[in-house]
# Entry
Amino acid sequence: MTPLVTESIASFSGRSDAWTSVQLVAQGSAALFAQAPAAEPGPSFLSPLTLVAGFFFLFYFIVIAPERRKKAEEAKMMASLKKNDRVVTIGGIHGVVAAISESDGIVTLKVDESGNARIRVNRSAIGQIVTPKDAKDEKEATT
# Structure
């Protein structure tokens, strides 16, 4: 407060001594706080923005990146699908590709080696292509 305001308040209240002592105590405590070194708030390493960015990168590398790789491998497998490939559907049906319809995405599988039993499945229902090495391991596992 300015001296003029202090004098006018003291003369108005009629308690100039009490007011002056309160003012002096307040100035003394303010001087104590002014002398204490103030902690400068620096940039915190764990600020909320850093935490959010960290969680995003963690989510990306744990969830999104592996899913992208899986989809890319699946697309590569579907592109390499051709007639006479041994395949297994996602339902567990084993068969040999008899025909592929590129326009509507339907694959005809021959499921019976000796007969003409055929089924039609969506191209997306092919779970894996069984390579000759996989077929050999499969025969060894059943015997």
